[in-house]
Specification:
This protein is mainly α. 74% of the residues lie in helices and 0% in strands. The protein contains three helices and no strands. It is elongated, with a radius of gyration of 16 Å. Keywords: Membrane, Transmembrane, Transmembrane helix.
Length: 106
């Protein structure tokens, strides 16, 4: 970002990560994916977290490593680092928020 602060990327990444992860946890628990009778609770909660982590972290990691020359020239390395940290924190926070909502609503 040209006129922004890297903390803006951190906060935006954390919010997006938390929302995506919480929605995935709620959706997959409600749809019973993977089935409750076939797998344990740990696997049932790990699946949405892994899906969210893959969906949220792949693109920034690729821009940081392999696709470095294809990223926006105005995006600094510091911005990308803060975005990755924010999304990782968002995945963790969204997991706890999603589990809390799932136990209350479902």
């Amino acid at each position: 970002m040209m006129h922004g602060h890297p903390v803006d990327r951190l906060v935006a990444g954390a919010i997006v990560g938390a929302l995506v992860t919480a929605i995935l946890v709620l959706l997959l628990v409600w749809l019973d994916i993977p089935p409750e009778k076939q797998v344990g609770l740990a696997v049932r909660l790990a699946v949405p977290v892994l899906i969210a982590a893959c969906a949220l972290l792949i693109r920034p990691l690729l821009f940081k490593t392999v696709l470095r020359e294809r990223r926006d020239p105005l995006m600094l390395e510091e911005d990308l680092n803060q975005l990755l940290v924010g999304r990782a924190l968002g995945v963790v926070g969204g997991f706890f928020f999603g589990v809390t909502l799932a136990t209350q609503l479902l």
